[in-house]
Amino acid sequence: MLLDKLRSIVGPANLLAGVDLSPYVVDGRTPEAAVFPGSLDETRAVVELAASAGVPIVPWGGGTAAAVGAPPSRPGLVLGLGRLGRLVEHEPGDLTATVQAGMTVAALQSALRARGQWLSLDPPDPGRATIGGVLAANASGPRRHLYGTARDLLIGVTVVTGDGAVVRGGGKVVKNVAGYDLPKLFVGSHGTLGVIVEATLKLRPVADVERLVAVRFDRVKDAGAAARAVMGSDLVPTALDLLDGEAARAMAEAGERGRPPGALLAVGFDGLAEQVDWQCGELGRVTGPLGGSRVVTLPGAAWDALGSAAPRAVDPPAAVVRLVVMPAQVADVMEQAAGAARARGLVAAVSAHAGVGVLTAALGTQGAPEPATVAAVLQEWRAMARAGGGHATLESAPLAVKAQVPAWDDPGAAGRIMKAIKAQLDPRGILNPGRFVAGI
């Protein structure tokens, strides 16, 4: 029996079944079991056993991106990486760290900051998000404006592929130019190409001072113009986020007080104290003529609140969509998205990493709207992104809505390439089958 064999690999205490599986239900689908290996060898053995039995596997870190994608096509195994949560190696002189995939972002940052360094990634919910999950989802936060995403920080990876093979790519030093950049293939693959077990990442020294400030505006349009002005100035912000009025209201608990604004521009700076002071002052001079209020400093907790402001503003959201557009179009798309929701009697909250053109739009409801109404708004949002040369991803929604709105955009010709790569690394199609782009 499969479960008995799994217990023999990981130990009885590290396999869950029955009612204990409730935290791992995705889109109404309950897995057959959840198994938690404690080493690379155990991970390989679990995958190999599942592959031989033709049983699907869902790699699981903290579950923060579990709702992303199409519903699971059939029950299978959740492969949890929670026991693989160790900082394997930290080389302060090389500014690198090797970490197991199940370590949370918060735990890693705490360990690194004790030695004056940090990983320049700030995904939502860092206390739950794991390194492996962040890489698999290519998750990021406000600081991506200056520091980039997981693809920019990953230099080495150890992965178990769908046939149980252990693949190591990259290295443990920043200057690594030999061969193909295999590690980046797994970033953003949502667990469909392999189970990430270990990663080596580039680090940065902790800045002397870091500050998040906010400027209020009466209109989203004015805040958008201010964001573009900041990008064209001598300022070097670490974050440049734009929030509409609904999302801005969700920042009140994080320290942004006063009358509800029409829009909020949140800007981060780090460096020497004198540099940060100058940049905050210059921000006021850049945004003031465009309708901005005085620059207000937000507390440190506002960093985490910023990345999840839109969904929290309409909690619980009926749906959450990530839209990618050109940075110059951010404010226009935000206003259009809110207008499309209002036209159907719904409310939207939208925030954006304005400098890189990534928006999070959350749809709120009063009562229980028809799934067709929610789906119609989401389809309009997707059309807005496509009209600007971008795309949209449905990050969460009820099953009745997912049945009408695909989670992913059509990848076009790239879909054939992705399927070919999937066939090479997961020949039996057991890793998160059917949940990602092009049904892979």
How would you state the average pLDDT, rounded? 93
Using only C-alpha atoms, the radius of gyration works out to 22 Å
Helix/strand class:
alpha+beta
Strand content: 15-25%
Q: Roughly what percent helix?
A: 25-40%
**CATH arch. level architecture of the largest domain:** 2-Layer Sandwich
Number of E strands:
19
CATH overall fold name of the largest domain? Uridine Diphospho-n-acetylenolpyruvylglucosamine Reductase, domain 3
- The low-confidence parts are none
Name the overall outline: globular
Q: Between the first and last Cα atoms, what is the distance in angstroms?
A: 28 Å
Query: Mind summarizing the main beta sheet?
Result: 8 strands, antiparallel
Name of the top-level CATH class of the largest domain: Alpha Beta
Strands side by side in the biggest sheet: 15-12-14-13-17-18-16-19
Task: Describe what this molecule looks like in 3D.
The protein has 440 residues and is of the alpha+beta class. It has 4 domains: 2-80, Uridine Diphospho-n-acetylenolpyruvylglucosamine Reductase, domain 2 (2-Layer Sandwich), CATH 3.30.43.10; 87-205, Uridine Diphospho-n-acetylenolpyruvylglucosamine Reductase, domain 3 (2-Layer Sandwich), CATH 3.30.465.10; 209-307, 2-Layer Sandwich (Alpha-Beta Plaits), CATH 3.30.70; 309-402, 2-Layer Sandwich (Alpha-Beta Plaits). It is 32% helix and 23% strand. The chain contains 16 helices and 19 strands. It has helices at 2-10, 40-53, 105-113, 131-137, 144-147, 150-153, 183-186, 220-231, 245-249, 273-287, 302-307, 309-313, 330-342, 371-387, 399-402, 414-425; strands at 15-16, 33-35, 57-60, 77-80, 87-91, 96-100, 117-118, 154-160, 166-170, 195-202, 204-205, 209-217, 239-244, 263-271, 296-298, 319-324, 347-353, 358-364, 391-396. The strands form 4 sheets. The protein has an 8-stranded antiparallel beta sheet. It has a 5-stranded antiparallel beta sheet with strand order 5-6-10-8-9. β5 (87-91) and β6 form a beta hairpin. α1 runs antiparallel to α2 (40-53), α8 runs antiparallel to α13 and α13 (330-342) packs antiparallel against α14 (371-387). The longest helix is centred in the last third of the chain and has 17 residues, at 371-387. It starts with a helix and ends in a 15-residue tail after the last helix. The mean pLDDT is 93.
